[in-house]
Amino acid sequence: MSMAMAQVKVGQVTYPTQKAAKEAVRTILYACPIGHTLSGPDAAFMLDLLDLHPEADDKVGCGVESIQVEQNYGSRGFWLTRRDGSRTDFSFLACIRPPTTADNARAAFRSEIREQVHRYRDEQFNGDVVRCDVTGVPVTRGEAHIDHATPLRDLLLAFLAIEGLDLDGVAVQPTRDGETTTELLDRGLAARWGAYHAANARLRVVTRHTNLSTLRRSR
């Protein structure tokens, strides 16, 4: 059985697949307004899920007072408030499938070029609408995704080959309260990756549908 098909037990509830567990969590995440404090069965469910986090002891600390839905960097996510008033975020995806070293490294490389992607978006959307670079369909800023014409995976593999590294050999910054992005531990490596991406990436504006369906299938 593949990892994605593995059962996930959250408290007394067993989900047949990781996908089913993720859908259950997302139902809670998107049913609540930003800043909402969970209560009742939703809160109990998320506490059970938090127990599965690979850094559960550090996340819980002196004990969980409450769990909120908050706006993270470009998305929404879960935060907890401890009994001493301190707060931190936690990834529900990590609870369902603990990330590998390669997963963490991949996330860090993506985070390191995020500002380049956001600058490109700002440069393109100096008006109300631009056209999708793949389909030609008009797209607004809110509907647009920024895509790599050469997949980011391929750019990263080429960069790692130059560096003589693989993802399993790349360390990331230790987790800190309230840090919603993963960063590379080696800041020299981060700078070289940023420069490589700036020189070699060809970004483009696409519709959300094109990015999540047409382009994903082609890859």
- Give the overall pLDDT as a whole number: 90
Q: Please give the number of β-strands.
A: 9
Helix vs. strand class? alpha+beta
**Count of helix runs:** 9
> Strand order, biggest sheet?
3-4-5
Outline the biggest β-sheet: 3 strands, antiparallel
Question: Low-confidence stretches at least 5 residues in length (pLDDT < 50)?
Answer: none
Strand content: 15-25%
Provide the domain count: 2
Helix share of residues? Answer: 40-55%
**How many whole angstroms does the radius of gyration measure?**
19 Å
Q: What is the overall shape?
A: globular
User: What is the succession of H and E elements?
Assistant: EEHHHEEEHHHEEEHHEH
Head-to-tail CA distance between termini = 24 Å
Describe this structure in words.
By secondary structure, the chain is α+β, with helices and mostly antiparallel strands. The protein is 43% helix and 19% strand. The protein has helices at residues 18-31, 40-50, 56-60, 92-96, 101-112, 114-124, 152-163, 187-200, 208-218; strands at 8-10, 13-15, 64-71, 76-82, 87-90, 129-131, 138-140, 144-148, 203-207. A 3-stranded antiparallel sheet has the order 3-4-5, covered by helices on one side. A two-stranded antiparallel ribbon has the order 1-2. A two-stranded antiparallel ribbon has the order 6-7. The longest helix is centred in the first third of the chain and has 14 residues, at 18-31.
Fold blueprint:
Elements: E1 8-10, E2 13-15, H1 18-31, H2 40-50, H3 56-60, E3 64-71, E4 76-82, E5 87-90, H4 92-96, H5 101-112, H6 114-124, E6 129-131, E7 138-140, E8 144-148, H7 152-163, H8 187-200, E9 203-207, H9 208-218
Antiparallel strand pairs: 1-2, 3-4, 4-5, 6-7, 8-9
